[in-house]
Amino acid sequence: MKHYEISRLQVVVFFAIAIAMLIVQVYPMFWVVASSLKDGADIADNPPYSLPSHIFWGNYARALLRSRLVQYFVNSVVVAGLTLVGIVFLSAPAAFAISKLSFKGSERVLSFFLLGIMIPIFACIIPMFMMYRTMGLRNTYFSLILPQVGFGLPLCIYLYTSFMRFVPDSLLEAALIDGAGTFQIFVRIMFPMIRNATVTVVIYNFVNIWNEFTYANTFMTKSSMKTLPIGLNDFVGEMGRRDWGATFAAIVLAVLPTLIVYFLLNKKIMEGMVAGAIKE
Amino acid sequence: MRTRNKAEPWLFLAPALVVYTGVAIVPVLWSLGYSVFDWNGIDDMKFVGAYNYLRMLSDTTFKTAVVNNLLFMAGGSAFQLLSGLVMAIILSNISRGSNSMRVLYFMPCIISSMAICKIFEKLLSVQPEGVFVALLRFLGINPIAILSEPNWVLLVVTLIDGYKFCGLYMVIFYSALVALPIDVQEAAYIDGCSWGQQYRYIKLPMIKNVFFACLVIVLNGTLKGFDVPYILTSGGPGSASELVATYMYKTTFNSTQFGYGGALAVFLLLESLVAVSVVRWAQVRSAKREG
Amino acid sequence: MRRKQRFLVVWTTVLVLFSVSTVSTFAASVKAPLSIHYLTARSEDEAVIKALKDIAAEWKKTNPGFTFEVESIPDRASYLQKLKILAASNELPEWFESDPDTFFASLVKKNMVYNIEDLYKELKVSDRFFSISKEYARLPESGNLSLITWQCNCEYFFYNKDMFAKAGIKSKPRTMDELLAACAKLKTAGFTPIATVSGDWPVLRYFAMVPFRLSGNDYIINATQGKVSFGNDVGIAGAKFMQKISQYFQVGFSSADYDTMVDLFVGNHAAMLYNGTWVLPELVDKNGDLKPNIGCFTMPTYSSHDATPATDFFANSGIGTAVRRDKMTDQMKSFLAFVFDRYPDICLKKYNTLPSISPASIDTLSPLYKSILKDIKGVKTYAKCWDVVIDSASLETLNKATTELCLNRITPEEWASRMDKIVAENHK
Question: Which of these, A6, A143, B101, B213, has the minimum number of CB atoms within 10 Å of its CB?
Answer without folding.
Answer: A6
